[in-house]
Amino acid sequence: MNCLDCLKKNQKLICYAGGLLTAYVGKKLASSCKVRKACVSTLAKGMTLQREVENYVQNIKDEAQDLCYDAAAEVAAAEKKDAE
């Protein structure tokens, strides 16, 4: 019997065993101290990046509001000058 034929006949059993093996390895990795430290470090870097992006976006909004205010003031001054 060919090995590939054996795999085709027992495909469900092999998928089940593969799933069990994956769950076991995943549990071992998740409980590993090094993996936990790496995950915490990555999450901390992501949170820092998020804060930096929020500050950057807020600065852009503030600058845009300042530009709009300046433009409105210029229009008002021009209209006042034209009215005189």
Write up what this structure looks like.
The chain has 84 residues and is mainly α. It has a domain at 46-84. The protein contains 3 helices and no strands. It has helices at 3-9, 11-30, 33-83. The model has no long low-confidence stretch (mean pLDDT 88).
Reconstruct the topology from this structure.
Elements: H1 3-9, H2 11-30, H3 33-83
On the 0 to 100 scale, the average pLDDT is: 88
Tally the beta strands.
0
What proportion of the residues form beta strands (DSSP E)?
under 5%
Which secondary-structure class do the elements indicate?
mainly alpha
Question: What's the number of helices?
Answer: 3
The description of the largest β-sheet is:
none
Radius of gyration: 31 Å
Descriptive labels:
3 helices; single chain; 84 residues; mainly alpha
Q: In a few lines, what is going on in this structure?
A:
This protein is mainly α and 84 residues long.
